[in-house]
Amino acid sequence: MTVGPSRWLPDTLAARILAPGAAALVLLLVASLVVHAALLRRAAEHGAAEVAAHRIAGAVEAIAGAAPSDRPSLARALSGPDVEVAWGDSPELPRERARAAPDLAHVGRLAEVARELRAAPGVPDAAHGAMREAIVSVRLADGSWVNARVLAVSLIAADDVAFRVAVGAIAFALLLCIAFASRVAAAPLSRLARAVRGLPPDSDAPLPPVGGPREVREVAEALDGAMRRVRDLLRQRSLALGALSHDLMSPLARLKLRADELPDAALRRRLLRDLAEMEGMVGDVLAYLRGGDGGGEPVVPVSVAALVQVVVDEFAESGAAVEERRLDDGMAPARPVALKRAVRNLIENAVKHGSDPWVEVLATGTDVEIRVGDRGPGLPPGDLARAFEPFFRGDRARAAGGGSGLGLSTARAIAEAHGGTLDLACVPGQGTVAALRLPRVTPGNGRPG
């Protein structure tokens, strides 16, 4: 049983290797960029708060050393274009807004005059490599607060755009490496598949070497061994078929001769009819077991219309009239005896199980189609689905008696052995149509089109 590809998975081995590798790489890079951005922002905030605290350290020390009455004017005097300093009884920065508070031991003389330090780094300004509106609140020993607002804190930071470009380039290079590795891993399997498809079914040639890793070579060796066993089995079956043909046909021929000597004419006719039916059954079984290889019969260009006319004439000689419709002139590479058996089986079904049988040949640019139909009652949907099963006969066929149930199975095997197809269509009450399609010979080169 052939299992189709999963709906959510790629259809090739290379793609199935590449897809999870690419997905893992993308997830890793996204996680790296997120972590990098978080660490960079944290470092920038901490650095901005510490730089802002260093910039106001002198102003805080001066205000702490001044008399309380002089502190407001001193704070205004210490303010500048990018620094606003104020003194008061409460902090400008609430505790819940303080996101970064550097260690006072690292901020110069603030550790000597300050009891608490709150800092908010502000908003990053990527265009200028700075943090805007950094706020620092420092509580002095007497409980009052020095509040400072630093309008811009310059930072030395890496170029984030350049970093992202570099990461993207590395990711693209890794994807190329993964794609190349997956292609290299899948190439031996592709070569093995092409080698297996290219081997003719009747050849004893071994599989050509495909190379690749040890596992692929082991698969190739196992396939080669399996093909040798199948060839041996088919060869033994062909020998058994030849022996069976001789062993069965010879007694049937002797029985026919003896039946001709019977004095009772009615008994002689019934016996000859039964012997002919037995001979037909044996022939059907042998043809089915032989498949479509024609017993070693060579493939030659065949005029399909002429072959169909020969079969129709044979049925006419036996008293079964078959209507000839459109008969296009088309050549197909075929084994004449095997193809003739397939056409005979289809017409025989139409004659036995239908009424007013007809046949036509339609030639297109690449195909030749043999259509055989009738105007009988048709097949029930359940029988149509099982019509090509070996030894299956519908209710009407069983009631009519005779036949081996291998006619359609043998015809389909012959069609497929010729690179063609056999389909069956039926409209209840309007008849059944069998369509046998064969590749057409291309004019000028004698090969299938």
What best-fitting shape do the alpha-carbon axes yield? rod-shaped
- Please report the distance between the alpha carbons of the first and last residues: 30 Å
How much beta, percentage-wise?
15-25%
- What class would the helix/strand composition place it in? alpha+beta
Total number of domains: 3
Query: Overall pLDDT, averaged?
Result: 76
* Unreliable stretches covering 5 or more consecutive residues: 1-5, 397-401
Report helical residue fraction.
40-55%
How many distinct beta strands? 12
Query: Helices and strands, in N-to-C order?
Result: HHHEHEEEEHHHEHEEHEEHHHEE
Q: Biggest β-sheet: count, sense, barrel?
A: 5 strands, antiparallel
Radius of gyration, taken over Cα atoms and rounded to an integer in Å: 46 Å
Q: How many alpha or pi helices? A: 12
